[in-house]
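Reopening closed ticket. The problem is back. First fold of the pair:
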Amino acid sequence: MPHLDLIPDPSVVISDELKQWLAVADKVSVLLRGDIVPRDRANELPRAQVALLRQHGLLDLSVPARFGGKGVGWNTALQVVRRIARTDASIAQLLGYHYAWLRIIEVIDSEVAQQALRDTVAHAWLWAGSGTSRTSLAQFSPEPGGGYLANADAGFATGAPVADRLLVRGADTETQQFVVAIVEAQSPRVKITDDWDVLGQRQSASRSVRLDALPVAASQLLGVFGPVTEPPPPALSLGVLFFQLLFAHLHLGIAEGGLLEAAAYTRTRAKPWVHSGLEHTTQDPFVQNGYGQHLARLQSVSALAERADAALSWAVANRARLTGAERTQVAEIVASAKVVSIQFGLEVTGGLFDLTGARSTAASFGLDRFWRNLRTMSLHDPLAYKLNELGRFFLNGDSPVPSGYR
């Protein structure tokens, strides 16, 4: 949103609701900032940080008021995530995923889904998914008395070790219908490994998950849909777009945070280059040009992300009559936002040290975390395939078949 950019647009009025929750996000960010560098090194599960989100009322932020939540819109929730991502990308990802799962549950709109939203408010649940879409779907084997036994060997599931509930997607082994269910994340039949020691996003708790003959009662079924071999109706394929757009906002927030922190370092610590003849680094025209270029890039990402958000919100509001062609157009606008958020985000975070100098590489400053986090997150699905998807659509009118990544 242009009024939340690093150069705010004074012509746009911020609602009191958005001001309120951005203030909460800023307060949480200050608390997260205090120990972020040692936490990143330690690679521990973020239990205390999830408790912080819970204490500040952020877990039921996006749940509609009719289910007892705060009823804040998707756009405001995204801006809260973006704001926190400027400081702590891992915790922002956990919170963003939580909001995306809740929005999927809201769109499903079954009785079980509605109760799940009420329970989220009542118990301050944190939601996660059971694994990546790239791995095979969970296998739901029907039980004689109703319900299923679920088995799965899923890939990395962001937030699973610290979540209260998991949303599990799979196939009925007899009918091959698509099944979506709720399970307790801490069930003894949910096996979570300790295998997340990577370049960035180290506190996103993205560990592998296995379901081992996990009982799933009928009361845990959010819905049973058409065959898994057939593309879902447009209205039921919007969930992945929530995540794709979320990534664009996370990438943007990380890059903004890196630029803000680098600028603070430049103003207070950086030494002017010996041949510049200047008293302060902030007077160096080459440094000024670098910040100007990065700032312009991030402003453009923000504008496209806002357009994608408006398009996706329109699709959700009109999902009952959404056509396949309209769904494709929205998906490609979202894809465009994600592409530029990766490209410009990596250029910005990778170029910070050119503006701050050799001393800023000290581990105690933690400036490297912005690039590491964005580089890790950008690999969620290959940029080359996202570009190819856009090119095929533009050149040949090829509509991408909805999947877990598009």
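Second fold of the pair, where the issue appears:
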Amino acid sequence: MTSADLDSHRNIDARADGVGEGFLSWFAERVRMSGCQVDLTPLNELRGWAFDEATGNLAHESGRFFVVEGLHIRTTYGPVREWSQPIINQPEIGILGLLVKTVDGVPYCLVQAKMEPGNLNTMQLSPTVQATRSNYTRIHRGGGTKYLEYFTRPQAGRVLVDVLQSEQGSWFLRKRNRNMVVQVDDTVPAADGHYWLSLHEIRQLLRVDGLVNMDTRTVLSCLPDSFLAGPGGALAEEGMAAAIVRSVSGEGRPHHSAAAVLSWFTSAKCRHELAVQRVPLRGLPGWRRTPEEITHDDGRHFSIVGVTVRTNHREVAEWNQPLLYPQGRGLVAFVVKSIGGVAHLLVHARFQAGLLDIMEMGPTVQCNPENYPGARPEFLDYVLRAPAERIVYDTVLAEEGGRFYHSQNRYLLLEAGEDFPLEVPDDFCWVTAHQLTTLLRHGYYINVEARSLLACLHSLW
């Protein structure tokens, strides 16, 4: 157990009002029992992984899991028009599945305390099932995935959500996961490492730094409308609080119709020229490879590092793998403005080279500020200078610990000041939370960072 694990548990006690003592004791015990060691390991020493002699791409000897390769991008979007970068190519589709059950009108979700090698605090709350295809088909020759049958055999429960969604388009090449919610009526015992937690409690835990993992957040954002009304009480029903309630529930009139939002988004995709080409990792311009890692020449953005993992809480007790290591903490923020008494989120039509359809709707600001010493992304400085009284939500949350090493973003919901304009640049649009939730019934509209913030917004009422 690390000091980060201890700090995480203290944060639960301090920030998660209304979370039962049963869960707090259970999670503390899981943390205490977590025997996990993650050591940085030179890339040249990763067992089972090797650089291809011709391309320099880094791949597993089985041909499965994922490959680190190169990407070259040319675009008319943004201040940087051409660059090269490493990217993770993981073409298989994984399952992110959440079992839900209603007891006396209260929805419960079956979550698990899961260790991932890239987690800063080791143990986080993940969905019932969180598994790549390589893992649940047991390419690693380890143990099976608990509860998998509920998501591969729909007759085991009622499917409420089943949609393909993207993951981080700046670091993954066309990565998709099947986001699923399955409702059960029969009693399903919680296996070792799993816990039935009320939906209200999970949303309270979204206020705890680094606890609810990215995969849980994306599935929570996809929950149907019937799960959005919660016990409430966190916000008074006046001002921005009431505007957020109307935004989530679909009450009131949106600034733009659904058809107008889709037309804006289609226009944004057609306005820019984008060319993305897969290239060899060997000799990638602007990047250098050492025996230990692959890094950018200026030390910014990210690097590719290797780790050796030993644990008693996964299907396999020991393994090696590469991870993408971001430099510094990122910032992910929605500017929120009440328009006609309904809270609207300032959505950005965001280009990310690894997305299947190149563009998805993202937050107002999504970047690592340290990567922009010169030209700054639109609205970044507005968010950074926001007074504390306008911040509605502010929590540091982790990204995918199975592929990224110590990747964290500060997630913010920020109330716009009176001076914030209603008219915004062409690549931005005011959209209600309910409109975004409706779009999540389909894949490839809302990026994973915006989905995380949408789940956080739902936690406010």
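Update: turned out to be a display glitch only; the data is intact. The radius of gyration is 21 Å. Confidence is low (pLDDT under 50) at residues 230-236. Please close again.
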